[in-house]
From TrEMBL:
Binds 1 Fe(2+) ion per subunit. Fe cation binds at H112, H116, D307. It comes from Chryseobacterium defluvii. This is tRNA N6-adenosine threonylcarbamoyltransferase. Gene3D superfamilies: 3.30.420.40. HAMAP family: TsaD. It is an enzyme of class 2 (transferase). Its cofactor is Fe(2+). It catalyses: L-threonylcarbamoyladenylate + adenosine(37) in tRNA = N(6)-L-threonylcarbamoyladenosine(37) in tRNA + AMP + H(+). It is found in: Cytoplasm. Belongs to the KAE1 / TsaD family. Required for the formation of a threonylcarbamoyl group on adenosine at position 37 (t(6)A37) in tRNAs that read codons beginning with adenine. Is involved in the transfer of the threonylcarbamoyl moiety of threonylcarbamoyl-AMP (TC-AMP) to the N6 group of A37, together with TsaE and TsaB. TsaD likely plays a direct catalytic role in this reaction.
Length: 338
């Protein structure tokens, strides 16, 4: 890989992030989280756009300072074109276009989902990068899918959720438990103190490699409503066990299909990506398979799991090598296939 220096910009949801990459080595990876959404229990798109606009220049400036480079060392600008919230994407896209024009460097569009997967090729993401073909369970707040990765830019979705994403299930169930948004990391933390076998929840029975998470959410809701009628303090008294049981159920659903795909396709190179890949029970389940099923597993370094610009810069670097540039008339896109 060449050692060009590229700036990556990510603004697809509620994190404004900028990163500088040299070759596949990250020199800086800065993010500003938006606390403004907490009190609403979810991301409010208009507030997200406004916060991106506020954050983007300080975040980009900080990424350049931290990387200890001069602005004129930047060879290209990579940005998230989609998928995501349109208003949020527009802020990053407009800024990336303007900066590319003023620095007179190429502009490179990046698919956010490809970036979650290709984050595995960042130098310090893994001890070793995955070998093609590999399976990547891509699990975030907006997406849940099993991707067959044949090459950097040759990916096939072999299974996906038919309703909620896994991260969304964590967040919505967390809301039932009266936890803050995003509840995924909170459930992960509380689950450590609980008994994962305390409660059983319905699991979907879908064929093929597809997922469904709306059933478990409803099952938790009805169960909680029933118990709270009998004991108003039920949630408080059982919070650790509830979190551990919900987490166990979600991770089992995720792993069963991944295991099925690995067996049926005969692929033992198995990776996880996206915000939910930060989950400690999912990481543990992957490690178990490494021993039990002989998988070579790839779990990205924590800071490359949730939304970040390092992964955007990584994809931009791969496209820069191929000379795949984007016209300055480009626009953001809320939907963007792999
Ligand atoms: O990839 P990401 O940062 O943003 C999207 O592209 O959606 O993923 C965010 C999602 C949220 O739903 C959040 O609750 C979940 O990832 N998440 C977790 C954990 N950390 C983040 N879910 C379970 N356990 C975690 N430790
Ligand atoms: Zn994401």
């Amino acid at each position: 890989m060449n050692d060009s220096i590229i700036l990556g910009i990510e603004s697809s949801c509620d994190d404004t992030s900028a990163a500088i990459i040299k070759g596949n080595r990250i020199l800086s990876n800065i993010a500003a989280n938006q606390a403004v959404h907490k009190e609403y229990g979810g991301v409010v798109p208009e507030l997200a756009s406004r916060a991106h606009q506020q954050n983007i220049i300080p975040v980009v400036e900080k990424s350049i300072t931290k990387a200890n480079i001069q602005q004129n060392a930047i060879s290209a600008i990579g940005f998230t074109r989609g998928p995501g919230l349109l208003g949020s994407l527009l802020v990053g896209t407009s800024f990336a276009k303007s900066l590319a024009m003023s620095l007179d460097v190429p502009l490179i569009e990046v698919n956010h989902l490809q970036a979650h997967i290709l984050a595995h090729f960042i130098e310090d993401a893994n001890p070793m990068p995955p070998k093609f073909p590999f399976l990547c369970l891509t699990v975030s707040g907006g997406h849940t899918m099993i991707v067959l990765v044949k090459d950097y830019f040759d990916m096939e979705i072999i299974g996906k959720t038919t309703d909620d994403a896994a991260g969304e299930a964590f967040d919505k169930i967390g809301k039932i438990f009266d936890l803050d948004y995003p509840a995924g990391p909170i459930i992960d933390r509380l689950a450590k103190e609980g008994n994962p076998d305390a409660f059983q929840f319905n699991k979907p029975k879908l064929g093929n490699y597809d997922y469904s998470f709306s059933g478990i959410k409803t099952s938790v809701l009805y169960f909680i409503q029933k118990e709270v009628r009998k004991n108003p303090d039920f949630i408080k008294e059982n919070l650790y066990d509830l979190c551990a049981s919900v987490q166990k159920a979600i991770i089992e659903i995720l792993m069963n299909k991944l295991e099925k795909a690995s067996k049926e396709l005969g692929i033992k190179e198995v990776a996880i990506a996206g915000g939910v890949s930060a989950n400690s029970a999912l990481r543990k389940a992957m490690q178990d398979h490494e021993e039990r099923s002989g998988w070579n597993i790839y779990i990205p370094k924590f800071e490359y799991t949730t939304d970040n610009a390092a992964m955007i810069a990584m994809v931009a670097q791969l496209k820069f090598e191929k000379g795949e540039f984007t016209d300055l008339r480009t626009t953001a896109t809320a939907k963007y296939d792999l």
